[in-house]
Amino acid sequence: MGEAKRRQAQTTPTNANRRAVLMQKFITWTTWGAWAGIFILGTLWVTVRFIGPGLGWWQLAG
């Protein structure tokens, strides 16, 4: 019985390991979200600045 408990203690992650894994997942998701936001902002800017006026959808003030 002592051997089984020892093996289980070695295979189950500790709270520190769980926290590290969660933190890494958080960093991964927020980094992905930041890049997605940058891409969306760039696409919107190109559309408003070049595509819309080029297709005659609107005119830039100026």
Structural summary, described in words:
With 62 residues, the chain is mainly α. The chain has a domain at 15-54. Helix content is 81%, strand content 0%. The protein has two helices and no strands. The mean pLDDT is 88. Pfam families: DUF2839 (PF10999). Keywords: Membrane, Transmembrane, Transmembrane helix. This is DUF2839 family protein. The chain crosses the membrane at residues 26-48.
Short description:
InterPro entries: DUF2839 (IPR021262). The chain is mainly α and 62 residues long.
Instruction: List segments where confidence is low: pLDDT < 50 over at least 5 consecutive residues.
Output: none
Quaternary structure: single chain
Q: What's the end-to-end separation, in Å?
A: 81 Å
Q: What is the ordering of alpha helices and beta strands?
A: HH
Protein name: DUF2839 family protein
InterPro entries: DUF2839
Pfam families: DUF2839
Keywords: Membrane, Transmembrane, Transmembrane helix
